[in-house]
Each structure stands twice: as C-alpha cells, then as structure tokens.
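// run 5 | inverse folding | seed 20
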C-alpha cells in the first residue's frame, strides 16, 4: 500500500500534504512554486510509493466550478499522463483556506506566521487530505 498525496493547486505556489505509508496520519509536506510542481512530484513519486493523488477541486458556494478550474483541469490531465499508474482524484476544497487560517489561530501561531501564504497552502492541502480520507469516496476503494 502506498501513500496518498494531496495538492492544493495555486497559480503561484502549491501546497502538498501526504499520508504515512500505512495511510493513517495525514500531514503537511511542503509548498512548492507551481512552475516546479511537476518536477517535484516526479522526484517525490520516484522516492516514495504513492498510490493516490488527490487534487483540490475549487467550487463556488452554488457548487459550480470556480474560475481557477481553468488552470487545474489541464494540470490534472497532465498528471494523468505523467502518472498513469496512480489514481488521480478531484476532491471538494471549499472552505479549506478558511479552515487553515482557523487552525493556525487555534494552534497559537503568531500573527506574522499566519501571513505566510505558503504555510496556509500546506495546511489547506492537509485539510483536503483529511477530508478525503474521511469521505465515502475514499472508504469505498
């Protein structure tokens, strides 16, 4: 069994989270510049066993795709071509940034650290991964 990796895709930087090898504990991994994302993923997947890649699916309050899906769809197709042996899933990421900011407040992270958008992106990727692991979509695998 391999890890599950989640991606909070952004136009400038992308947050990444991953489970342990037993898929029990999700945790933030890093944030990478989006223009280096595919290279990072290729290297990481060469070093670690990853079975599932979960990409955050941004939607509006009415459930329609957000404007950022115009960049995410081509990225997901590129992922599918680059990693044909991995399951690529899209998962609702509504409110993850809000939850990430709240998690930072709850953990006592200082004001200056909360302005660190890279940290917010990494925490958002972790929330996407936790939500995916809690979902019926994952449990039905």
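// decoded
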């Amino acid at each position: 069994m391999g890890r599950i990796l989640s991606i909070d895709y952004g136009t400038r930087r992308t947050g990444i989270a991953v489970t342990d090898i037993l898929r029990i504990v999700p945790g933030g991994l890093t944030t990478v510049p989006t223009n280096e994302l595919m290279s990072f993923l290729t290297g990481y997947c060469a070093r670690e066993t990853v079975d599932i890649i979960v990409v955050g699916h941004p939607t509006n309050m009415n459930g329609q795709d957000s404007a950022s899906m115009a960049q995410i769809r081509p990225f997901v197709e590129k992922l599918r071509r680059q990693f044909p042996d991995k399951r690529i899933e899209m998962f609702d990421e509504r409110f993850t940034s809000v939850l990430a900011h709240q998690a930072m407040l709850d953990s006592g992270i200082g004001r200056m650290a909360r302005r660190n958008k890279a940290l917010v992106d990494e925490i958002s990727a972790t929330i996407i991964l936790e939500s995916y692991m809690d979902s019926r979509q994952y449990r039905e695998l």
